[in-house]
Amino acid sequence: MSAWRKFLNSPVGPKTTHFWGPVANWGFVVAGLVDTQRPPEIISGNMTSAMCVYSALFMRFAWMVQPRNYLLLSCHAANESVQLYQLSRWAAANGYLGDKEPVTDGQTPTAPPVKA
Q: What is the C-alpha separation between 101 and 7, in angstroms, rounded?
């Protein structure tokens, strides 16, 4: 049996949800990476925290399910990394890390005040 046919018919191959679920979840990773270019003031701390918990739970699921789903594990590990980075940007922008003043007026912390 060829390697392609073996993969096609495997328990985690493209004929199963063990394959297509993780492929779809890579969208979260891509969206998070795109959002790293946006200002941290628009990051939702609640949603980013929820995404961190979600990815942590599903990393465990991917490890425990039989057969092990390494594609799902890698997807959620990548998403956990991106979301933790976004959470650190949100915390810094809101003054939780102690190195910057909180942003309350929509300006970046380093921008000079706007004169009326």
A: 53
